[in-house]
Every structure is written in C-alpha cells, then in structure tokens.
Please model this.
Amino acid sequence: MTRRGAPWRYGGLGALIVVCLGLLVVAGHNILRVERQMQIAATENMTWIFGQTQIEALSLTAALSAGAEETEVQRRFDLLVSRLNLLRDGPQWRFLQEAGLAEGLTGWRDGLLARDPALGGDRAALLAHVTALSTALRGKSSRVMAREWQLQADRLDRLRQLHILALAAIFGALLSGAGLAALLVDRERRLARAARLQDDLDRERMASEGYRRFADLMAHQVRTPLAVIDSAMHRLTRPGTPPTPEEIGRKAQVSREAVARLVRLTDTAMLMARVDRGAVAPELATHDLDRIAAAALEEAAARPADAARLRLCPSNRPVPALCDPVLTHEILANLLGNALLYASSDGPIELCARRDGETALCDLRDPGPGMSPEDLHRAFDNFTRGARHRDLPGSGLGLPLARHLARLQGGDVTLLPQEDGGLIARLTLPKGAAA
Model:
C-alpha cells in the first residue's frame, strides 16, 4: 500500500462505515414511524365508536317507547352518555374536529344531561331528544365512515412508503456492509501478503547471514588443516637430507588428522543442509541407548590420549529408547567431539545412559570450564561459538545439528551447568518398548 493511496483507502473505509450507520438509523426511524401510525390507527376506530353510540341511542329510544322501568331507562341513559363522553374526550374528538364533524355533538350531550331521568327529567322530552340524536348520528356516521376510509387509504399509502424507505435503507446498509467487508477482506489479504513478504525477507536475510558466516567459518577452518598438510608435504619433499621414517610417520599422522578434520567438517555441513531441507527421515524403532552410547564412545576413543579420558557409566540393564540408531550415534559423536575439544584435559568425560519415567536419557558430563549464561542461551544457534573457543577448531554446527536430529526423533538436547564446574549435555529420547 503506497502512502498516496492510503488516505483514499482509509477515507473510503470511513465513508462506508458512516453510510452504513446512517442507513441503519434511517431504517430504524422509519420503522418507529410505522409503529406510531399503527398505534394511531388502533385508537381511532371511528366507525365502531359511532356504531356503538347509535346502538345505545336506539336502545334508549326503545326502552322509553316501551315504558320500561326506571332502572332500565337509567342504565340505557348512562350508557349513551358514556358513549358521547368517549366521542368528546377520547382521541376520536381530534378526528371529528379535523373532519369538521364535531359541531353539534357537545350540544346533544348537554341536552341529554339536562333531561336526566335520575333528576326528574321528562320522558317524552327525553324520547324526542334521543330520537333526534339518533337521526343526527345516522347522518354523521356515513360521513365519518367515508372520512375514515379516506384517512385509512392515506395512512396505508404512507405506511407503504415508510416500508419501502425502511427496506431501501436496510438494503443500502447491506450493500454498504458488503462493501465494507470487501475492503476489510482486501486489507487483511494485503496485510497477510505483506507479513508473508516480510517473513520471506527475514528468512532471506537470515539465510544470507548464515551463508556469509558459514563461508567465513569454512574459510578459516579449511585453511588451517590445509596449511598443516602443506607444511608436512613441504617438509617431506624439501631437498637435502631425506626425512627419517619416524619423521615421515609423524607427518603422515598430522596429515591424516587434518584430513579427518576436513572430512568431519564437510560431513557435518552436508548433514545439516539435509536436515534444513527436510531430507532426513528417521527410522524409529526400539534400541538399547546404552549400546549406542558404548559404540559412540569406542569410536571417539580412537586416540590413546582420548581413550584415557572417556568413561562409560556401567548399566545393569538395557535402556530401551525409541530412536534411529544412526542418527542417535551421530548426536552422541557430536557431543563427544565437543567435550574432547573444549573440556580440560585433567578430568574424565563420562557418558551415562539411564531410564527416567517415560524417557530415555544419556548424559555427557565433562569437567571443562563450562559456559556463560549468554553462551548457553545462544549455544544452539547455527555457527555460534563461545567467546573462549573462537581460536579452537570447530564449525559451530555440532550442537544445532545434535538438537535437530534429536527433535526429529521426538527428543531433545539440552545443556546444563554442573554445580562443581563443567557441563552436562543431555540427550532425551522417548522410551521404547521393553524387550
């Protein structure tokens, strides 16, 4: 996203939000208006009110004409007055006033009260008044009905318009919401793409830095054994007194050790590259970790000086581990090589395999100077070497490779400082099935 396009994108997003909220407000307002119109319609049923008033007037007329008892006449009189009061005092009065039909209704009610039977009113005068009231109500009822139908038609038209406006607002809000969702999804995709690009760039930078450090390390580590070999060959081939057999043997031994170092460095680098590519697939089965440790220790003790320092803790029973024996042997070979290279020469190096619950352990204990907390924290980073070991031969790949190979088998490699000095390199693997 460019800086120039960002304001437009954010502005469009804000505009859609405002439009969506505005349309929802309009829809809510129209729905409230529809509800209000329905309430008004429910309270202004003029046809029913006028019909009830006419019925009560006719009932009172019939009671007076038939000479009914005073209680019946009074009951009918009260009902008719209550209907007239409803017309005058209820919401229907506003309707009658707007329709121009309210004139005369108040006079009819007052005349009716003046002839109240309970106050000794004349029955004949009351009958004449009620008969005239019935005629007037019948004349007004048709006009009330026509006016109410007209108002109902107008109200239905307004309700239809309000419904259409509400639906249009809701539909517009849905469209705005869809547009807003599309913008958000597009922005999320852009952010995800940018995050992926950033991750790729970070990995590329890390890879480039790793290649650079590896090239520097290889140039340094390869140059030293090549210089040793070149010096030995130069001594053996220089003119003059021919070298003695003892000298030839010494130079040959030095050259073989230098070549072995080069081979070991190359094998480690190639195996690490295969692990990084995911080209190493362990063949897991139950194996005796104690026997694998013994084989790795025997291979590491090729030189008599190293053999005197290496010890295998005695084990009375097998230590079954679910592992790949070739990869596990490689892990222990790397750990033993580090211990022989960095540990002090005045103490034994012990390799102990044992069972611990659901795991199989193999501890390598060396009496060396140990590692600082900073070096321990970075010990498993590729090409990382401790500050005190930079002048010693090594690739900085042994510990990272050992951890990668252990984790491929469901285990791990950790470093633990010893209380009395030195370091414990611990290999943990899943426990295998007992034999």
Notes: The chain has three domains: 5-188, 211-274, 282-430.
